[in-house]
Specification:
Length: 279
């Protein structure tokens, strides 16, 4: 893995090339292990890649549990809900658990199932969980929980200025993802946001990338997927595009290096892998 300070190639907001002929084309090239690839677009995961959401998922979970407590759900049952949804003993969130990877609808089913297992009528449990989740969603302070990692906004501006198409593929809902990206000042640079609700199968299945490929009219082999989880890299592999792992969020080198084409310290290190070539 290359370190954060190993790169000296910088992208600037304006790329200008002079051509002798009437026509010319500028290619963006990404270099992975001494091999050059022409690319037309980059797909980013949201949480842990573009946005520092270390407090987002625990806060969302606790807000939901408080809502259920107000409905009379016992603390012992709530502890079971937290554990089943993916809360770790230290209070963190399992990056491979239902809360991190599941759709909102799947999270409702998981929570309602725990209530059912503890003696609650299935239909009543499901409707109650749905009601609480809806209310919490409306009360979330999006501005407070939406923070881009340092340098991300400038990076996206530079990549967009270089002519690349940019997308986000996230397990979050599309609506909330767009609100969070907008609050963090990033949405303007993103061409398309694909949430879990826009596809039948989420990560690690390739459907999100397939949808983005169709919408942006870019073949898989000219797309790069950047994310901090194993499911991000498995999705990239399944779709046949380049996978770049980042060590922010829940990213771990020992997990990512076996499947990612390259692993970098954070998303801004993409600068060192990219350059432009004019033909």
């Amino acid at each position: 893995m290359r370190g954060k300070n190993d790169f000296n190639v910088e992208l600037s907001p304006d790329f200008k090339f002079e051509f002798e002929g009437e026509r010319g084309r500028v290619f963006m090239i990404i270099t992975i292990r001494n091999i050059d690839y022409n690319i037309d677009g980059i797909i980013f995961d949201k949480d842990g890649t573009l946005l520092d959401t270390q407090f987002f998922w625990p806060e969302l979970l606790e807000a939901r549990m408080k809502g259920l407590a107000l409905k009379g759900i016992e603390e012992l049952v709530l502890k079971s809900c937290r554990r089943t949804l993916g809360q770790l003993p230290d209070g963190g969130i399992d990056p491979d658990g239902p809360l991190a990877l599941g759709s909102r609808a799947e999270e409702v089913i998981v929570t309602a199932t725990v209530l059912y297992q503890n003696g609650y009528h299935w239909d009543k449990a499901r409707l109650m969980v749905e009601e609480i989740y809806n209310r919490v969603e409306k009360e979330l302070d999006i501005d407070r929980i939406s923070r881009a990692f340092p340098g991300v906004k400038r990076l996206l501006e530079d990549l967009k200025g270089a002519g690349l198409k940019l997308a986000v593929a996230t397990t979050d809902t599309t609506e909330r993802a767009e609100k969070m990206l907008d609050s963090a000042g990033l949405l303007e640079q993103i061409d398309i946001v694909v949430g879990r609700d826009m596809v039948e199968q989420g990560k690690p299945k390739p459907e999100m990338i397939e949808l983005i490929s169709r919408k942006l009219n870019i073949p898989y082999e000219k797309l790069v997927m950047v994310g901090d989880t194993l499911s991000d890299m498995e999705m990239a592999e399944a779709a046949g595009c380049i996978g770049i792992g980042v060590l922010t969020g829940s990213g771990r080198l020992d997990v990512l290096k076996g499947i990612a084409a390259e692993v970098v310290s954070d998303v801004t290190n993409l600068r060192g892998l990219l350059r432009q070539s004019a033909l």
